[in-house]
Every structure is written in C-alpha cells, then in structure tokens.
Specification:
By secondary structure, this protein is α/β, with parallel strands linked by helices. It is built from eleven helices and ten strands. Helices cover 37% and strands 10% of the residues. The strands form three sheets. A six-stranded mixed beta sheet has the order 2-1-3-4-5-10, with helices on one face. A two-stranded antiparallel ribbon has the order 6-7. A two-stranded antiparallel ribbon has the order 8-9. Helix 7 runs antiparallel to helix 8.
Length: 379
Amino acid sequence: MEFGRLLLTGFLVLCVLGVSGKELQRSAPCKFPAIYNFGDSNSDTGGISAAFDPIIAPYGDSFFHKPAGRDSDGRVLIDFIAEHLRLPYLSAYLNSLGTNYRHGANFATGGSTIRRQNETIFENGISPFSLDIQIVQFLQFKARTADLYNQAKTRNNLPRPQDFSKALYTFDIGQNDLSAGFRKMSFDQLRAALPDIVNQLATAVQRIYQQGGRTFWIHNTGPIGCLPLNFFYNHNPPPGYLDQQGCVKGQNDMAVEFNKQLKGRVIKLRAELSEAAITYVDLYAAKYGLISNAKNEGFADPLKVCCGYHVNYDHVWCGSKTIVNGSEVYGASCANPSQYVSWDGVHYSQAANQWFANHILNGSLSDPPIPIIQACQRH
C-alpha cells in the first residue's frame, strides 16, 4: 500500500511539473561508446604525422611532454570532447603501431579540405586526405572491423560492430578550403564555390548515415582572418582591411558566409535524414569571442604567437632552425603557452582549445541548444 502511494505521488508530481516521459528521455545523457572524427589540423591527433614527416618538439610539450601528432602545445579540441564524454583520446586512423580503436578513430589530418585540391602537400601543406577520402577510409575501417571482430580471439582493441550506430560523429573541416581559395581565387570565385563545398560536407554526412550513423556534431569554421599568419607578410594593411579586433575583415566575412550556408544545409539534412540527430556548433562565435575579449580572459594579445621567430620579414617556424643574418635561429616556444591564444600563428594553444571546449560543450552555442551529452536526442 505504501509503495503504491509513493508511485501515485511521483506520478502526480510529474503531472504538476508538466514533465512527460518523452521529455525525461530527452534530458537523459547519451552514452556514446565511440567517437569518429573527420577534419583538419584543428582536430588531427596524429594522422598527418603518421603519413608524412612527424610533428616535432616543442609541439606537445605542455601536456604530453613530447610531440603527440597534434598541431598545438598540448591537447586539441577533440581531446577535450573525448575527456568530457569520458572516452580515451582518439587514435589516428593512419597510426600503424600502438593503436586502440575500441572507442573510435580519428580520420582528420592536418591540411585536409572538404573539396579535393589540385596540389600536393609539398607545395602548400594541403593534405591528400580530403573529406571524401576520409569517408572512404571510414567505410573500409567499418567493413574490416566486422570481418576482424568475427575472426579475432582478442577483440579488446577493436570497435564493437553494434557501436557504430550509437557513436558520435564529429566534423571540424572547411578552414583549408577557404585558405586555399584565398590563395588561388578571387573573393567572387570563392563565394561562388561555397555551395559546392558545403554540399560535399553534406554528402559525407549522408554516407555515414547510410552506414547506420545517427548522431552528428558539426563545427562551423573559425575566424580565419584572425590567424596571426595573416600578418607575417603584411605589416602595413591598407585602410578598411582590418576589423575592430585587427583581423582581416574580408576573410572573416567569407567564413561567416560559409557558416551561414553550412547551417542552412544542416537544417535541410535534418529533413532528409529523418532518424539523424544533427547539431550545428557555432565554433566561430567561441573563437571570435575569445579573440575579442582575450585580455579579460587572462590571455595575451590574441594576434601574438607563442612559438616561432617572426621578426620583420624573417620567419623561423615553430620547432625549426634557420640561418638569419648569418646566425642560426631556433623557432622556440614562449615561456608561458597558457597565456597565448595562438600557438604557432596557424593553430591554437591548448589553453585556447580548452576555453573553446568550455564554451561549446554545454550547448550554449549550438543549434539546437543542447549539450554534447544529449546530442543523440532528436529535437
């Protein structure tokens, strides 16, 4: 009798609060068994190092205390996502030794683009592993996993085949399409290419959906005009070239337009993929927010670089050695990387990546506005 009274009381409380069973289900955290990531150097955890020359010290010093395949002094954003979901750091798909793929894999490589570029990595650092290739790699990975899992006696390092449908699929790519466009096209030409670039990203999502993927977390692209690299070779920009934060206005405007089109395409994808939960994440807002308010957040000038030697027009990249005016100069790290937004002029510091994570994982910059731990819930 007492138990029945308790049940009735609980039911009445839910009715008073107006909480339905569906709403309770939506508020429950998702239990992602794995993450599969696609992207560029912003989320590469060792792919480009495995495929080509390894990233060297002082990269990785702040956290791993050695180079760890990441273009930062420590962790990148996908590492903080994994930590938040209580999953191990992702092994790069291209790693050949010491890999464990039980909880996912990372197909991102530094220099990757959405659209294939007609140039090699030795020219402008563009990775041959464009997004369509990353998807092909994923399809092969998934197919081989099924075969190996059925044959293997020891399965601890293999993904469980049933986990692919429950996994989180993350995308952080597009920045290099814009940077390649700035290098090779007029602004009008690049603007005309944006719909095709966005559609190719949508095609990647569709292909994973066809393979059973259901939860997608898609980052938009950041304020590329705020990368300090822009000012290494242009010390005297003309009037109107920069915005109020000192960033290249035209480049940021293009990033904003790319993001607008990407968001519109994500909304269409939700209608096309009826069982998918797709979250669009405004990483641009997080990055530009920190850059606009760096001093108040405890950072140095966001357009200053921690690692490397860049004086006048002499440039020694982070970790490299070059002869400058007859003397060998080393591109060393600053004393306190945690005070810098930019690590090497192109990539963010670990401290900045952690700040971004703190501002996107709670869902406050997402559409729909849900935290990542509820990203599997369709809204």
